[in-house]
From TrEMBL:
UniProt family annotation: Belongs to the Rv1128c/1148c/1588c/1702c/1945/3466 family.
InterPro entries: DUF222, HNH, HNH_nuc
Entry protein name: HNH endonuclease
Domain HNH nuclease: 64-116
CDD domains xref list: HNHc
Keywords attached to this entry: Endonuclease, Hydrolase, Nuclease
Taxonomic lineage: Bacteria, Bacillati, Actinomycetota, Actinomycetes, Mycobacteriales
The keyword Nuclease is assigned to this record: yes
SMART domains: HNHc
Organism: Mycolicibacterium pallens
Amino acid sequence: MIASATIQDLQAKTGHAVTATGTLLPIPDLIRMASHAYHYLALFDGVNGQALWLGRTKRIATADQRIMLHNKERGCTRPGCDAPGYLTEVHHVDEWAEGGLTNIDKLTLACRADHRLLDQGWKTRKLANGDTEWIPPPQLPLAAGTNTYHHPERLLGG
C-alpha cells in the first residue's frame, strides 16, 4: 500500500493519510498497519513540496520513483482526469528519446489514454512548484493547466 501523511500527523497520531487510490486512512490505522510492513520513506520540501531527488540514467522509472510519484501526483496529471495512480504510466516530461533523464523532478503520471495524447501534439512541463502542466496543441482552443482532482486540499486554501 502507498500512503501519504504529514510528519505532524504521525507524531500527534491523529488526522488522516491519503492512499494512492485517494482513500482517507486514519493515522492510528496507518501506524498499526505499518508496524508489520517494509517501509519506503518519501520526503518532500516543506516549503514548496518539491520531491526528494531520485535520479536515474536508465529509461524505466525505479520502484522508489514510482512510489514518490504516487505520493506526489496521486493520479493522472492531465487536467480533469480522475484516473488514480494505480491506473497510470510514468511519463518523461523531457522525452527520453530526445535526451530526457529519468529523474524524479522530470517524471509525472498519465493514464494510458492521456499518455497517448502526447503523441498527438500535447506537451507537458513541470512548474516551479513541481506540478505538471499540460499544454494542448495550438489548433485546440484549450488553455494549458494542471489537475487538482487528486488534490482537493489545494482548493480549500490555508
